[in-house]
Amino acid sequence: MFWGLAAITASETGFPEVDGKPTWTSLARAVYTMQANRWDTRACDGGITWQIHPWQAGYTLRNSISNGGLFQLAARLGRFTKNQTYFDFAEKIWDWSAESPLINTQNWNVADSTSGDNNCIDMGNMQWSYNYGVYLAGTAFMYNATGEEKWLRRTQGLLGKLSTHFFPEEYGENVFSEVSCEKLHTCDRNMLNFKGWSSMWMAMAAQMAPVTYDTVLPKLQGSAQAIGRQCDGETENLCGSRWYQETWDGIKGLEVQMAALGGITANLMMMSNAHTQTIDTNPNAKEQFLDTYSDDTPDALPLISTGDRVGSWILTVLWGLGIMAAAWWLIKQA
Fold first, then answer.
1. Which CATH number does the domain housing residue 174 bear?
2. Positions in the chain short of pLDDT 70
């Protein structure tokens, strides 16, 4: 999903297209198409599963980052291309998410996952910032594109929960913390990166729904200042993970640096006067059809072309002639 979000970002920011290659919008559409085709009503009345193949661990889970990622991608494709089909599917994903245990629109709790084994009546309620962020950006793009108040209410509801739960009072209320694992020192490599994505999605929400700007800005600014204090590790200015500490916390890794970069980038996004583009302002990013398919097995071979068939026919003939020649030689020797 993240590949698709990166591709649509390239279209929205006017990143140069590559001559002779599909446009960034086309690549985003290809990701969307492959994921939308995985919508599964055999259990839970819909949703997409966390894993693609049934033999993968966790296949029956329907989680927020997968469904929220597709929701955001659909919303952004809809806004960029002005194609109603994307908006319709984005609304479908939101409605399903809100009717499932993933999103509680009363208290704006976003759960991590729900299980298809139990027809999605239970939930795994570990609190991760990127689950909130991924839906937040999607609702803000929907509000910007449609102007409908329901999307603004949803944006404000998600932002309210995100900006309180993950910006603890004990750290001054303006420093981002992945609260479910940082204090316990249990963040794995994925979790270390969640704040970076969430920070940028908060900045996107502020751009798409300017009424949220004053809520988002102090959170991101306070976090950037905290990141600056943390980035003094060893002799290479490594950034740490627990931004609320005054000095580097000793945690290394690519994901930690990516999170810090995301936090700084989010602030730069807030300072930018550039507008997020659409097909009207970036016509070079028009959609092109790409043939996409998913294999039933991870080691499946590519589709067979006419050239492949001709080549296999020639090899078969040569192989048959070789066998006949060998048989003739054996008969002659006898």
1. 1.50.10.20
2. 235, 289-334
Choose among 73, 78, 67: nearest CA to 103: 67
Q: Considering only CA atoms, which of 13, 11, 99, 89 is closest in space to residue 62?
A: 99
Eight-class DSSP state of 170: G
Q: Mark whether 112 and 154 lie in a shared domain.
A: yes
Length of the chain in terms of residues written = 334
DSSP code at position 51: S
Percent share of the chain, pLDDT over 90: 71
What would the two tokens of residue 206 be? 């502020």
Question: How far apart, in whole angstroms, are the C-alpha atoms of residue 312 and residue 291?
Answer: 24
How many separate helices (H) and strands (E) can be counted in the chain? 10, 4
Domain interval for residue 265: 1-306
Kindly report the CA angle at 256 between 253 and 259, in degrees rounded to 5?
Answer: 150
Is 329 found in the same domain as 256?
A: no
Closest CA to 144 of 205, 68, 94: 205
What is the three-class DSSP state of 186?
A: coil
Residues of 57-66 as b/e, b for ≥16 C-beta within 10 angstroms?
eeebbbbbbb
For residue 331, the model assigns a pLDDT of 54
Q: Under the phi-then-psi rule, with left for phi > 0, alpha for psi from -120 to 50, and beta for the rest, what region is 20?
A: left
Distances, alpha carbon 156 to alpha carbons 71, 126, 138, in Å:
17, 21, 12
Quote the CA–CA distance of 325 and 194 in Å, as a whole number: 66
Q: Are residues 48 and 126 in the same domain?
A: yes
- Beta strand residue intervals within the chain, DSSP E: 61-63, 103-104, 109-110, 113-115
> What is the distance between the terminal CA atoms of the chain, rounded to a whole angstrom?
67
Is the domain of 41 the same as that of 186?
A: yes
Query: What gap in Å lies between CA 97 and CA 47, rounded to an integer?
Result: 8
Give residue for tokens 């092109």: 288
* 278: its two tokens: 């659409």
122/305 Cα distance (integer angstroms):
46
